[in-house]
Amino acid sequence: MRAFVAIPMPEEAVAPIVALQTLLGCGRAVAEENLHLTLAFLGEISLAEAQALDEELAAIPTQPLVLELAGADVMDRARPDLVFVGLRKNPPLEALQRHVAAAARAVGIDLARRRFRPHVTLARFGRAYGPAEELRLGRFLEASADFTLPGFAVGEFVLYHSTLDPHGPRYDRLAEYPIGDLPGSDWAEE
Q1: 3-class SS string, 41-65
Q2: In angstroms, rounded to a whole number, what is the distance separating the alpha carbons of residues 34 and 13?
Q3: Parts of the chain with a pLDDT under 70
Q4: Rounded to two decimals, what is the model's pTM?
């Protein structure tokens, strides 16, 4: 199964993010129910690996976590593949991400070695990225450079199963882990 670990956006953050998406005018917007902050993309893993990872993730100590979204940007200036809203520096979030990555590696999941750049993807660009999209994207990035969202608490991180579909991906929750509470999970076998 294709899987990842992420923080879903709570209700109070979704409406402002969706409002920002509507200003973009290009790309394929991420569905409202799919808005999240990825902690670790796991790729293709087995059910046994997912179950072992569940035990590791459930043991991660967490502390209350408040996120502050700030500014929009793209991942690759030369050929943007996605546009996102970034986050202000957040040591507790960075610590959580390191714990999640360590848990995945502890059960033998090979993660790509790259710097953690926390963000919430607003839209993705396919092959149809051309001069018109470049102009719209440039205007959007200028207009949203000062976008901020007051801090909001997040209550969980989630192990997701991702199913790719021509109409967009579908994310199913496999397990949920409270943030700032006692470690534990709710495992859902499919």
Answers
A1: EEEECCHHHHHHHHHHHHCCCCCCE
A2: 13
A3: 128, 181-190
A4: 0.90
